[in-house]
Amino acid sequence: MSGVRVLVGTRKGAFVLTSDGSRRDWDISGPHFAGWEIYHVAGSPAEPDRLYASQASGWFGQVVQRSDDGGLTWEPQGNKFDYEGEVGSHQWYDGTPRPWDFTRVWHFEPSLTDPDTVYAGVEDAALFRSVDGAQTWHELPALRTHRTSADWAPGAGGMCLHTIILDPSDANRMYAAISAAGAFRSDDAGESWRPINRGLRSEGIPDEAAEVGHCVHRIAMHPARPEVLFMQKHWDVMRSDDAGESWQEISGNLPTDFGFPIAVHAHEPDTLYVVPITSDSHHFVMDGKLRVYRSRTGGNEWQALTAGLPQQHCYVNVLRDAMAVDSLDDCGIYFGTSGGQVYASADAGDTWTSIVRDLPAVLSVEVQTLA
Amino acid sequence: MIRVVLPAHLRALARISGEVHLDVDPPVTQRTVLDALEARHPTLTGTMRDHTTKRRRPFVRFYACQEDLSHESPDTSLPDAVANGTEPFLIVGAMAGG
């Protein structure tokens, strides 16, 4: 029977939530790596029992964990992330140059075809790859050394490479997004990159339409239509129909277009999900109500989804890597909050239940659909 | 024999309990003790000091014999009581936060 495994990273450990295809009853294991920050846990599409977890601590730095049995057991892997070649500088918050300095892995993106190949997006922003199951890491330096990179500056959470998307129709094409540099595309498997930020407008930077400097929070793609991208920017929800060459705003009737995650329905490429957040100075949902907004029209027309979600006295946030979908026939949607709740919908967002309510603050949610 | 006491998170990472006992050829210094510790438990590499520069991570401290040795040169000899195993070499996660 089919099943679902939800991989949850929190401020104080990782949790693995499993259910059969009904998604009614859940087994919860964890905390794994108790007390450590788990920015992301990701499974290999090619070998679902192969998981990678980013385990970090302000005291003891970065650890990379790997499981080969779906999260039952874990083994530490290589944690040496050295930038390639001469390490230049980027802008610091005060405008002064600051040398690149590795802090942590924000996001793992396993290869679509090879369980031993996995990409890591790190802070300070750079892209690394392992081809030996995370034992050793090597930077793909063309992104960090892009001609614009001396002008990149960190967002409030640090200068992180938080989004990596591999094009399922073209092994050479990949996307990356950096706060607060913007979105980038490679058409040669990471050997070179170019900014893809035309159409973005960000009021917080001197040139609203600058080539780089946009605080992109998250990009999502439907695998059946890889040239179409959806973006939750700091403010504004955006869409590109040409692989990022140009972007159009699709915020439409959202009550606020600030937010972090964005996700696409597994079977409906024009059905999107966002979680509007009051503002960049109020990192919690509006009016004390936790509402997921769904568009069935590829944007602009949005519907609030509230059934089963708290509609009073709720002041949580949902971070950029904390929403995901399964690919069962009735698409499941999952997200985790800063209050430690993990919510699930087994009917594409119409109704919601909490799988678990009192975890540490949730940093990331990934979902695996198991055969 | 050198006795090393690790903080709880690093004991969990290395899957050990209690003290770590190491044989370290003279000179017994922070560097030689940490080299031996990382050789015994490679998963600890990078968690106490930088992989490449070998600089102590900012929130990791080294204590022994009621003294904070964190700012000593890594090549300074550790106290005799550590070198002869009378006292442990303490690796500590600094109190930080609020």
Structural class of chain A: mainly beta
Query: What gyration radius of chain A follows from the Cα positions, in whole Å?
Result: 19 Å
What is the H/E string of chain B? EHEHEEHE
The CATH class of chain A turns out to be Mainly Beta
Please list the strands of the largest sheet of chain B in the order they lie side by side.
2-1-5-3-4
Uncertain residue segments of chain A: none
Q: Can you summarize the main beta sheet of chain B?
A: 5 strands, mixed
- Within CATH, the superfamily of chain B carries the name Beta-grasp domain
**Based on the structure, what is the oligomeric state of the protein chains?**
heterodimer
Structural category of chain B is alpha+beta
CATH superfamily of chain A: YVTN repeat-like/Quinoprotein amine dehydrogenase
Q: Helicity range of the residues of chain A?
A: under 10%
Helical residue percent of chain B?
A: 10-25%
CATH architecture of chain B: Roll
Q: Could you characterize the architecture of this molecule?
A:
- The complex is a heterodimer of chains A (371) and B (98).
- In chain A, 0% of the residues lie in helices and 39% in strands.
- Chain A is built from no helices and 30 strands.
- Chain A has a four-stranded antiparallel sheet with strand order 3-2-1-30, with no helix packed on it. Chain A has a four-stranded antiparallel sheet with strand order 4-5-6-7, with no helix packed on it. Chain A has a four-stranded antiparallel sheet with strand order 10-11-12-13, with no helix packed on it.
- The mean pLDDT of chain A is 97.
- Chain B has one domain (2-93): Beta-grasp domain (Ubiquitin-like (UB roll), Roll), CATH 3.10.20.
- The chains are: A mainly beta (371), B alpha+beta (98).
- At the A-B interface, strand 6 of A face helix 1 of B.
List the helices and strands and how they pair.
The complex is a heterodimer of chains A (371) and B (98).
Chain A: E1 3-10, E2 13-20, E3 27-32, E4 37-43, E5 51-57, E6 61-67, E7 75-76, E8 89-91, E9 97-99, E10 104-110, E11 118-123, E12 126-130, E13 138-139, E14 160-166, E15 174-179, E16 182-186, E17 194-195, E18 216-221, E19 229-233, E20 237-240, E21 248-249, E22 262-264, E23 272-274, E24 292-295, E25 303-305, E26 323-325, E27 333-336, E28 342-345, E29 353-356, E30 362-370
Antiparallel strand pairs in A: 1-2, 1-30, 2-3, 4-5, 5-6, 6-7, 8-9, 10-11, 11-12, 12-13, 14-15, 15-16, 16-17, 18-19, 19-20, 20-21, 22-23, 23-24, 24-25, 26-27, 27-28, 28-29
Chain B: E1 2-5, H1 8-14, E2 20-22, H2 30-40, E3 60-64, E4 67-68, H3 80-83, E5 89-93
Parallel strand pairs in B: 1-5
Antiparallel strand pairs in B: 1-2, 3-4, 3-5
